Amino acid sequence: MTPPSHDTIGFILKGYPRLSETFILNEILLLERLGFKLHLIAMRNPGETAVHESVKQVRARVTYIPDYFWPFFFAFIKANVKLWWRKPGVYWAAFSFALLRSLRQFSSSTIKRFAQAAYLVENHVYAKSGSRFESITLAHLHAHFSHGPTTVAFFASWLTGLTYSFSAHAKDIYLQEHDFLRAKIAGARFVVTCTEFNKKHLQAVGGNAAPVFRCYHGLNVDAFIVPVKTRVPGAANILSVGRFVPKKGFPILIEALHRLRQQGLTFHCDIVGSGPMKEELLQQIKSLGMSACVKLVAPMPQNELLEYYRSADLFALACEVQEDGDRDGIPNVLVEAMAMAIPSVSTAISGIPELVQDGVNGLLVPEKNSAALAEAIGTLLRQPELAERIGLAGRAKVEEEFDALRNVEKIGMLLRGARSGQKLSEALLRDSSASNGRVNGVSQTNSLRVQSLH
Fold first, then answer.
1. Is the dihedral of CA 284, 317, 252, 372 positive or negative?
2. Which of 180, 171, 177 is nearest to 144 (CA)?
3. Which of 65, 194, 230, 235 places its Cα 20 to 30 Å from the Cα of 155?
4. Residue 216: which of 408, 445, 347, 361 has the closest Cα?
5. Which domains are present in the chain?
6. Cα separation, 284 vs 416, whole angstroms
7. Cα(243)–Cα(20) distance, rounded to whole angstroms?
8. Is 8 helix (H, G, I), strand (E, B) or coil?
């Protein structure tokens, strides 16, 4: 465990550890590898039965702040009263903002996040010296996701004067009311997001309020060793991975697979995930008579999922934009599949075209179009030479732009700059990158590390 100190960065997370947020875990581990001292502040413990093995490598302390108000009513009241007593002017200004917004939104969400921020400040941010609270143990706050966690950081910053920054991803950007998102951007030292598409949207919302940077999530490329596959006659293995929620488009994928089955193609498809649509998907598979060739598989840690990637001949993900604006950015599982040189098919929405270049390193089809998706999948299944070429090009793309260390190094530069009060700009990242050969170095396709598949 890393003890708190004046150069420690508080990482505010919605939940920790979470099986579906491998990219956050990777970022934490890489920042620690780069020398950062972190203190993880989670709004809840998900209590998931499966946990990534690499969670054990995290050195940072983890603090959980209550996410349910009534069971911790007296703890919340005590923290808020004490903070009001010590800083009445600052407290009432922040409290009034939170209360008025909750009333306008007919929702308790903002006032709840304010109460959490006050609890965090009073119980974990201030260091007690004797009977006085006089020093702050954190140098900076960084929140992941621009909704709840950043709201806590926003109010914690207001109450303490600590600087903060945040990473914005997908649903948290597009389902959030613009005025409050603009206020959070204005208060931040910087904002990071995982696609160029998101960056342009955040800049449109925030204007010049704070610099917005694009840093892809990336992955540890060395952990994704491309297997040597011996093509054998028979059914192809198709893989898809994601939460069973509408924006992942699994009903469209299942419908596309049914079309291919009717065309006489043989295959087996594993869809790995869980979520509220599970029963609906099971019913669809059954009603289409696809139970023998399409299976729903429970989510699993990364090391187990790698076995599914190794045996996959094709990866498909039918992402779509929902009526309320909810969408993916660049799905991490799509990056993982391409890192394994699996020929991949997805949809041309949001940031996905930043990863997948249609006809070059993957195939893109219009969203919510099962016929187009079936045609693309069928093309790759019928043309193995094309599939192999696209798969290798996908691996090269990941090596060039989606290596986690290169992208986390950029976040590290921004965190150091924010902590020191430095002006943050794209020029800062370019100058720092120019002096770091690892950031500029590009792996070539012929450097692929391969191993036999047993």
1. negative
2. 171
3. 194
4. 408
5. 8-214 (3.40.50.2000), 221-400 (3.40.50.2000)
6. 51
7. 8
8. strand
Report the alpha-carbon distance of residue 61 to residue 32 in Å, rounded.
12
| Residues 362, 318, 296, 294, CA torsion sign | negative
Residue 326, H or E segment:
none
| Rg of the chain, C-alpha, whole Å | 23
Tokens coding 222: 């060395």
- Location of structure tokens 């191993």: 451
Phi, psi angle pair for 165, to nearest 5° = -145, 170
Classified as helix, coil or strand, 130 is coil
Q: Which residue has the tokens 């002006």?
A: 423
- State the Cα–Cα distance between residues 236 and 239, nearest whole angstrom: 10
Distance from C-alpha of 39 to C-alpha of 5, rounded to nearest angstrom: 10
Answer for the pair 191, 171: CB distance below 8 angstroms, yes or no: no
Q: What are phi and psi of 127, to 5 degrees?
A: -100, 130
pTM of the full structure:
0.84
- In the numeric block, which tokens belong to residue 104? 């306008």
Q: For the chain, 454 residues long, give each residue's pLDDT as a single digit of tens.
A: 344 445 899 999 999 998 878 889 999 999 999 999 999 999 988 877 778 888 899 999 999 999 888 888 899 999 999 999 989 999 999 999 999 999 999 999 999 999 999 999 988 776 444 444 444 578 899 999 999 999 999 999 999 999 999 999 988 998 888 999 999 999 999 999 999 999 999 999 998 888 999 999 888 898 899 988 766 667 899 999 999 999 999 999 999 999 999 999 999 999 999 999 999 999 999 999 999 999 999 999 888 999 999 999 999 999 999 999 899 999 999 999 999 999 999 999 999 999 999 999 999 999 999 999 999 999 999 999 999 999 999 999 999 999 999 899 999 999 999 988 888 887 767 665 555 544 433 333 333 433 333 2
Through-space distance between the first and last CA atoms of the chain, rounded to whole angstroms: 39
Distance between CA 120 and CA 140 in Å, rounded? 14
DSSP assigned state of 453: -
Q: How far apart are CA 149 and CA 12, in angstroms?
A: 6
Peptide bond into 17 cis (omega under 30): yes
Calpha distance 200→214 (Å, rounded): 9
